[in-house]
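User: Need the bound-state model for zinc ion:
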Amino acid sequence: MDRVKVPLPGMELGHVNAYVLRCGDGYALVDVGIATYDAAVGLLRGLRELGVRPWEITRVFVTHFHADHSTLLSLLSQIAPAEYYIGEAEFRHVASDFDRFLSELFSEYLRQGVPKDLVEGAQKVAPMVRFKKAFEEIWGLPWRLVRDGEGLPCGLRALWTPGHTPGHIVYVGDGFAFTGDHILPKITPNISYWYKIEGYDPLGEYLRSLSKSRGLGLGYPAHGEPIADLDGRIREIERHHEERLAEIEAILAEGPMTAFEVARRVRWDIGPFDGLDVYNKFFAVGEALSHLVHLEFVGRAESREANGVVYWRRAA
Ligand SMILES: [Zn+2]
Ligand SMILES: [Zn+2]
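Assistant: Bound-state model below.
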């Protein structure tokens, strides 16, 4: 199996891995890249170096909808039609009404105490907004919606791993797995609170998804190098979230506060909150919020709404 490191200009991750595997008399791709000029040239050049012509790609497996993984399909689908696979829940919650998804996302952050100028700034830089046109094009493709446990072409099997996004799919092969953004080698995947789904606890979902991802063999993540000890990496990520849950619970001991105020007090690996750019601040609030929601689910925190703003505190 081969991969093309598709550039991600302007993003700290640097690249997204598009994995290339032989499948029948053609090729399959797992994730494709973001809809920019640099990414398009990078993908096409990488394929040429591997001796793969774009029209020989007959199947594309997308791990999740994020712009850096999916939107370059807007170009690829113009070159040659293929079969396109994505998680069923991704389609149900995100693609079916993208405008509503976006407006609910931003109004939820206002409700969680994020200042209006930060929400407006995030609306300008968020990939979901910047690549809206490409998203609208790819949502129109004839997707095959993938369900948990389903057997797929190219010797793959779907493992539904909600958490990073609601419909994230890990594509499992014989002794290896394409882990997408579900398990990454260097950074802990961002677990954000996206919007209100009744009874939705993204961090809880994520932790359950981690425990069902054991024993898959070699991990091929969407960013970075292959993960030899996938189970060891899972344990590290679990430990990280346990520590962060304890940290946030301790922060709440100061008294009731908004998710935004919690995010400002967390010791982020990438530096203090106030020094982060708009994009990372937004991610940090989402991360704090998903931990708060999980603490509430397990009875360790409580939330109360007053004048349209949500305040969190330790459970009595
Ligand atoms: Zn992602
Ligand atoms: Zn990603």
